[in-house]
Structure formats: C-alpha cells, structure tokens
C-alpha cells in the first residue's frame, strides 16, 4: 500500500472512531439526562412523602397519584373521598401532596374571607374554557378573584335585576305547562302517564332560567321540549373531557402554546362547547353596543360594574354552566328523595295545600312569591335535608397551604400543614355522614332534624351549627357561591309548584337514575317518572 493510501485509511479509521465516540457521548448524555430527570422525580416524590408522613391514607397514596386518578375516572370520587375520611379520620392523605378533610371547622378556616390560602391551579385550571383565561371560578389569584366578585355581586343579588324573580316564575310556569299539556295523566281518569325522564325536563328548566336572568332571553328548551342546539349534551361532553384529563394528570397540555389552542373548543365549531361559546360571545357583543339602562338583567349589571371584553365573556359563559348544572342537581336529588320517602312526600304536600287554601300562595297558574315560600318550615327542611344527604356539588375545591405552613386544630388534635400542600374537602363525609353535627342517623333522609324548637336543650346552638355546615355546600367565606340566592329561590319555588300541581311516582324504583360524578358535578339521566295531575 502506498504511503498516501495508508494515510487515507488511517484518517478514515480515525474519523470512524471519532464518530463512534461522538455517538457514544450523545447516548451517554441522553442516558444522563434521563437519569437526572428520574432521580429528580424520585427525590421530589420522596420529599412529598416525608413532608406529609404523619397523615394516614390508603396504601400507596404517599408515593403515587394512582389511587386518586382511579377515584376520579371511576365517576364515584365523592364516595371514595368519603370512605377515606370515614376510615382514616377528618384529615387524611389521598395523594403524595394532597390532603382531604371532612372537618367543617378546618374548611371554614381555610376558606375564611381573609384566608391566606389560595386556590390550587392543579384543580381549577383544568375547567377553564380557553387556555390561560379565567373566570370567577377558575381564578387562582386571591386579589383578582375578589375584584371579579365585587363587579358581579349586584347582578346576582337581584339589586340591579328587578325582573329576576319574574324571570324564574315565567320558566317554572313553562315547565308546569309542558308537563300538563304533554305528559301528565288527568287527575280523575285513573289512567297512567307514559314515563318521562324528569332529569331532562328539570335541566331544560334550569338552563332556560339562567339564560333568561343572564341574557334576558331563554334558550327555549322548555318550549321546544328538547335540548336546543345540543347545548346540554355539549356541556356534559366538555365536562367529561375535563374530568378525564384531570384524572390522568394531563390537563396541563392545554397550557402548552399552539397545542392548547388546537385541542380546545373553538367558536368556529358548528356544534358543542364551541358553538355555545360563540352564542355567548355574540350576546356580549350585541349588549355592549346598547345602553345598559334599557335592560335590567345580570349581563347589564356586569357591564355597569366594569366587566368587559374577554373577562365579561368568560363570566357570562361560566354563569350558564354553573348556574344550570348545580341547581338542576339539587332539584333532581330533592325530587328523588321525596318520591322514595312517601311519609315526607305526603307531609310536604299537606303543607303546600294548606298554604294554597290560606291564600298565602296565589291560585294557579300563579306562582308563590319568594317571600312566602321562605316561610314554609317543612319545605325549607326538605330542601336542606336533600342537599345534605346527597350534596349536589361534590367538587374537591383544592386549596394551597400558604408559604411557611399553617398549624390547625382538627377534632382537638393539632396538625402542621406544610406550605405548598394541597388540601381539599370531602362533601360526602362532611354532610351525609357527619354524625357529630347531624346525629347518629346522619345517613338517613329525615327533614325533621331541621325543626328543632327553641325549647329543646341546646337546640338553638345545634341548629346554628347544622345550618353553618349545610351552607358550605355553596362554598364559604372568600369563595362563597355568588349565585346562591338565585339557586335557593329557584329550588324552593320549583319544588312547591311541582307538588302543588302534580303527583310524581318513580317508574323504575329499583333503578331510579343513572348518575356519574364529573369534576364534582353530577351527570344524571334516566330518571323515569309517571306524572298525574292533582
């Protein structure tokens, strides 16, 4: 071999060695990076485990989120949380950095008006409508949240919406008309009506109410006796997606630039969430061009108090979803428990009939006033008991322990909560199974527990504690539900008018409904009932 040829061969061999070494270096670098990530993950998980080691919980929850993911994806998370606090105590661990409590006192402390705790973006941001854009429910900054609430308070309270009660009355009348004209069997005929899905009809009501009081124009589901534009199906589908992504721990993908927008609903969509968003956006734009003194609904009030642009749009859209789903769950629960407890049903109907005979309520087709319906002691007890024994909203509502941690008292025992820890609440345990507050028969539907007389020893204090705990169904303190007054009025009036005008009976008592927990809200269907005119 010539010297020049030998040099070329040697050079080629050297280059090959260099390339091989370079490839090896890259592989080693990749392995080192992967190892560093794994080591960091393990270290972080061990740190979380150690920080909360004193809190009991199901096996494996100290090192893995698997237990919690399974609970969320099962659609039965509220019962899982309840079982944990029943077994492990009023404060327990359900994930490496997540605690849950059933203590009303601790939850009141965490949610106090001036609480230093903040909302956990891990939970709240997964239910944003658009990536990076908040509404009053998803806003995790305390100052920003408080400012939003102030702008919305007058609209929800009814102070700037004098037609609020009239709008609710109109839609309740529409529901009564629908049942009487299409579904109810005549009172004296001894015939039986065809079963109807009461869950669907009540959803039509609540969606028409919130769109009427919010936009000044109902969607028209009751008149059409249908899910106009598939809005209800879209809401359930959208919430199901949120629940799945939250349970799998991948909701953060929506915050990734470009990707988040691509996988989120668009106002250009021809159906679903996107179409609902487009409708809400159009309503907002049209109203912004009009003087607010010409209208007196919530939207006008929001505008007068400074909400505008995207902020206004997101509050209006949130109003539609939250105002409909939470209220209809309450109505479904109350009606189901009335139909499955004949003694309570008969007693409540007797109170309603007496009020009508006494002229406290106007003759049909008039609707009882909010002032009058608040005076019905047994109806009030039935509503509170229904919401207690089956809370209509079972969100975990996770908060973040402030930097530096917090020392709290739970059932007479002191606990230190490390800063950055997530802590949520178990609605099922706090309300349905809370024997310390509601008595040994707390899991029983018994409205009479709310009729404690002043002459009962300790009765006044016991009732006050029960009411304070029960009210937490609507949130507490800084995060108290702004729409509570609207929901409260709608629930009481609707139950009164349904039992005044009709008799209801479950068509399939052995299978009363289909129910699924999605992000703490209940998707309920197949609530088949037979309706008879009274």
Tally of separate domains: 1
* Major sheet: 5 strands, mixed
- What structural category characterises the helix and strand content? alpha+beta
| Distance between the first and last residues' Cα | 113 Å
Oligomer: single chain
The assigned CATH architecture is Orthogonal Bundle
Uncertain stretches of 5 or more adjacent residues: none
What is the β-strand count?
Answer: 12
The named CATH superfamily: Cytochrome P450
Averaging pLDDT over every residue, what do you get? 89
In CATH, the topology is named: Cytochrome p450
- Evaluate the radius of gyration: 28 Å
Q: What's the CATH first level?
A: Mainly Alpha
How do you describe this structure in short?
This protein has 534 residues and is an alpha+beta fold. It has helices spanning 3-51, 66-74, 77-88, 104-110, 121-124, 142-157, 164-183, 198-215, 221-224, 231-248, 259-262, 272-288, 298-304, 309-339, 342-357, 370-373, 377-389, 427-432, 435-438, 459-471, 484-501, and strands spanning 91-95, 98-101, 118-119, 196-197, 399-400, 406-410, 413-417, 422-425, 502-506, 514-518, 521-525, 528-533.
């Amino acid at each position: 071999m010539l010297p020049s040829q030998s040099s070329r061969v040697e050079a080629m061999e050297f280059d090959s060695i260099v390339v091989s070494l370079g490839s090896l270096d890259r592989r080693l670098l990749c392995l080192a990076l992967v190892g560093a990530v794994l080591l960091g993950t393990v270290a972080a998980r061990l740190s979380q485990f150690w920080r909360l080691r004193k809190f009991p919980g199901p096996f494996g929850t100290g090192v893995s989120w698997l237990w919690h993911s399974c609970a969320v994806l099962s659609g039965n998370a509220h019962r899982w949380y309840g079982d944990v606090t029943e077994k492990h105590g009023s404060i327990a661990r359900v994930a490496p950095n997540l605690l849950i409590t059933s203590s009303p006192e601790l939850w009141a402390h965490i949610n106090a008006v001036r609480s230093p705790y903040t909302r956990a973006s891990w939970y709240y941001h997964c239910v944003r409508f658009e990536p990076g854009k908040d509404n009053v429910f998803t806003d995790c900054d305390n100052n920003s949240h408080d400012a939003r609430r102030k702008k919305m308070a007058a609209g929800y309270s009814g102070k700037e919406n004098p037609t609020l009660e009239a709008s609710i009355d109109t839609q309740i009348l529409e529901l009564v008309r629908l049942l009487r004209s299409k579904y109810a069997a005549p009172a004296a005929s001894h015939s039986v009506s065809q079963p109807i899905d009461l869950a669907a009809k009540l959803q039509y009501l609540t969606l028409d109410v919130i769109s009427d009081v919010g936009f000044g124009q109902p969607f028209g589901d009751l008149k059409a006796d249908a899910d106009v534009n598939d809005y209800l199906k879209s809401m359930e589908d959208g919430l199901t997606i949120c629940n799945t992504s939250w349970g799998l721990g991948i909701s953060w993908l929506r915050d990734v630039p470009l990707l988040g927008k691509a996988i989120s609903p668009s106002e250009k969509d021809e159906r679903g969430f996107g179409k609902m968003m487009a409708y809400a956006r159009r309503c907002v734009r049209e109203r912004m061009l009009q003087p607010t003194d010409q209208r007196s609904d919530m939207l006008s009030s929001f505008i007068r108090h400074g909400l505008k642009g995207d902020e206004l749009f997101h509050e209006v859209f949130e109003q539609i979803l939250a105002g409909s789903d939470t209220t209809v769950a309450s109505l479904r629960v109350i009606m189901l428990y009335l139909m499955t407890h004949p003694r309570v049903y008969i007693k409540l109907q007797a109170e309603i009939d007496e009020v009508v005979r006494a002229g406290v309520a106007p003759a049909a087709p008039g609707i009882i006033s909010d002032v009058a319906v608040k005076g019905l002691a047994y109806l009030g007890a039935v509503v509170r008991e229904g919401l207690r024994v089956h809370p209509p909203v079972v969100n975990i509502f996770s908060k973040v322990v402030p930097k530096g941690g917090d020392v709290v008292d739970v059932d007479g025992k002191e606990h230190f909560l490390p800063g950055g820890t997530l802590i949520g609440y178990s609605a099922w345990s706090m309300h349905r199974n809370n024997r310390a507050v509601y008595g040994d028969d707390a899991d029983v539907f018994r409205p009479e527990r709310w009729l404690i007389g002043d002459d009962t020893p300790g009765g006044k204090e016991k009732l006050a504690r029960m009411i304070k705990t029960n009210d937490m169904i609507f949130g507490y303190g800084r995060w108290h539900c702004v729409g509570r007054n609207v929901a409260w009025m709608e629930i009481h009036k609707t139950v009164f008018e349904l039992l005044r005008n009709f008799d209801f009976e479950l068509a399939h008592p052995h299978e009363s409904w289909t129910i699924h927990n999605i992000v703490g809200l209940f998707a309920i269907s197949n609530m088949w009932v037979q309706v008879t005119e009274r």
